[in-house]
Design a protein that fits this description.
The chain has four helices and five strands; from the N terminus they run βααβββαβα. It is an alpha+beta fold and about 160 residues long. It has a single domain, classed as Aminopeptidase (3-Layer(aba) Sandwich), CATH 3.40.630. It has a five-stranded mixed sheet. β3 and β4 form a beta hairpin. The longest helix has 16 residues.
């Protein structure tokens, strides 16, 4: 088991890889961030990501004991583009509202950075909504710099 007991993180918190039984906690945290998908949808996505462990990783911050109360997660993946070299991207980082500002997010980010480094990748890309000012401040405090701003478009097909 991977653990991170940094000075910012409670000695009763641990970081470990996500398991299928953690899906309810992942679903609850995704809801807090504004993604209200049902547990079945999150479970289906989790299983797809879990099968692709070589290019994806989900770490959890959990209260220990009993290591079942999920207080944060980070999803990182290897992004392979034609127009840019392979890199690691943060697909999501969420910390439970009650635990924000206690170093949980920074510890999860460090764990993801270690994973990226072990995979042989740099840089790490993080995307965040323009209205999430606290997230912008957090990433800058963690050493990330603003690279560009963009708009995202969507279209339902089929």
């Amino acid at each position: 088991m991977i653990s991170d007991h940094s000075p910012d993180l409670s000695p009763y918190s641990t970081i470990r890889r996500a398991r299928r039984k953690d899906v309810p906690g992942l679903t609850s945290l995704a809801f807090q961030l504004g993604y209200p998908d049902p547990i079945q949808t999150i479970e289906m996505r989790f299983l797809r990501i879990h099968r692709d462990r070589r290019d994806h990783c989900i770490y959890l911050a959990v209260q220990s004991p009993p290591q079942t109360s999920v207080i944060g997660f980070i999803h990182v993946f290897i992004d392979k583009l034609l127009t840019a070299g392979p890199r690691v991207e943060v697909g999501g980082l969420v910390v439970d509202e009650e635990y924000r500002g206690r170093g949980v997010g920074a510890a999860l980010l460090r764990r993801a950075e270690t994973w990226a480094h072990k995979q042989g990748f740099s840089p790490i890309i993080v995307r965040t909504n323009v209205v999430r000012n606290q997230a912008h401040n957090f990433y800058e405090k963690c050493g990330y710099r603003l690279l560009t701003q963009s708009k995202v478009y969507t279209k339902e097909v089929g």
